[in-house]
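DM between two lab members

TW: hey, do you still have the PPA1309 family protein entry open?
JB: yeah, one sec
JB: this one, 180 aa:
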Amino acid sequence: MSNTPMAANPLTRAVLEIDEYASGLGWDQPARLFALVDTARLRVQEPGLAAQLGLGDEQESTGLTPIEQDELPTGKQLDEFLGTIAWPDAVAGCALTVERLMLPPSAEAQVPQGLSDAKLAKWVAEHPDRQEVRMTVAVLRDGTRESALRLREKDTPTEVLTGPDLVPGLAEALTATFAD
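TW: and the structure you got?
JB:
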C-alpha cells in the first residue's frame, strides 16, 4: 500500500506517487521518464497491463497511472532528448523525475561570469550553500502541470513541496513533447 498522501487532484497524486517511488530507489539515480495514462481507460483498453500494474477494480476508478518508460539515453542533454519524444494518443500526460544541485537565490550574485557549462556545474557542486534536490514534474496534454521537490537533507514524505510552478522550465519542456 502506498504512503502517498491523498491529494486534491489526480495529477498531484501522480506526482507524489512518482516522488515516493523515486525516494524508495534512493539518491544518485538517473532521470526517469513516465507516461501518465487515464486509469479507467487503461483498465478497459489494457486489462492485462492494468492487472500487471496492480490496478484492481476495487481501487478508485479515476486518476492517472504512471508508467515508467525505458531508461533515458546517457550522453545526451535532457532538453535535446525531450525534443525527440512523441506520445501516442492514449497518453494523457508525462512526468520526469531528476536530481539536481541548486543554490539559494542569495548565491546568484556570487556566480562568476563567463563560465562554461562544465565549469559552472563544478562551481555549483563546490558551493557551500548548495542543496541536492529531486524534482518530479508532470504535465497533461491540456497544459496542466504539477511539481514535487524533495531536498536530500530533508528526505521525508512530510517535507515534499508541491506546486504547479516550482520548475517552470522543465514543465514547459515536458509540455512541448505534446506539441503537434
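TW: got it. DSSP finds six helices and six strands in the chain. The beta strands are 32-38, 64-68, 93-102, 131-140, 145-151, 161-163.
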